[in-house]
């Protein structure tokens, strides 16, 4: 009777099954971080100075004396510019992976980035035409 020898194909590597034990180091690190933060906050609370004076309890804003109420209305332009900054800043972040892997992505990656840049510029042109970045009306 011939012996049957099973050979594993080099193209198909063996797949190891994931077990809950594989996540033990992550859980241990999270537990250690939580305990470290808890101990540091507790020690700073117990050992830190506790002299409360009227000067320490007064609101301090960059060395400028407090004037008026902080709950007054603000122009929407500030929020609009902040949201647009975050939007375009996050879009620019997506250029980094392309810059790192541009040779491996080939022409398909090039055309994907061209599409991305064209949509990016279309959004920017739309914002310029809507005059969203002009401070004075």
What tags apply to this protein structure?
single chain, 137 residues, mainly alpha, Methane Monooxygenase Hydroxylase, Chain G, domain 1, 4 helices
Structure explained in plain terms:
The protein has 137 residues and is mainly alpha-helical. The protein has a domain at 74-129: Methane Monooxygenase Hydroxylase, Chain G, domain 1 (Up-down Bundle), CATH 1.20.58.1610. The protein is built from four helices and no strands. The protein has helices at residues 24-47, 54-57, 76-93, 95-129. Helix 3 runs antiparallel to helix 4. The longest helix is centred in the C-terminal third of the chain and has 35 residues, at 95-129. The model has no long low-confidence stretch (mean pLDDT 81).
Question: What topology does this entry show?
Answer:
Elements (H helix, E strand, L loop, with lengths): L23 H24 L6 H4 L18 H18 L1 H35 L8
Shape: flat
How much strand? under 5%
Major sheet description = none
- Overall mean pLDDT: 81
- DSSP E strands, number: 0
Low-confidence stretches: none
Summed up, what is this model?
With 137 residues, this protein is mainly α. It has a domain at 74-129: Methane Monooxygenase Hydroxylase, Chain G, domain 1 (Up-down Bundle). It is built from four helices and no strands.
């Amino acid at each position: 009777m011939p012996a049957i020898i099973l050979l594993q194909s080099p193209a198909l590597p063996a797949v190891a099954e994931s077990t809950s034990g594989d996540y033990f180091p992550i859980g241990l690190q999270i537990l250690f971080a939580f305990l470290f933060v808890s101990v540091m906050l507790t020690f700073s609370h117990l050992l830190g100075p506790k002299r409360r004076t009227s000067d320490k309890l007064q609101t301090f804003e960059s060395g400028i004396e407090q004037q008026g109420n902080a709950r007054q209305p603000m122009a929407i332009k500030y929020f609009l510019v902040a949201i647009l900054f975050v939007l375009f800043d996050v879009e620019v972040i997506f250029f980094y992976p392309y810059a790192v892997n541009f040779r491996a992505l080939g022409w398909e990656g090039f055309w994907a980035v061209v599409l991305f840049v064209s949509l990016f510029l279309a959004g920017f042109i739309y914002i310029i035409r809507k005059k969203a970045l002009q401070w004075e009306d």
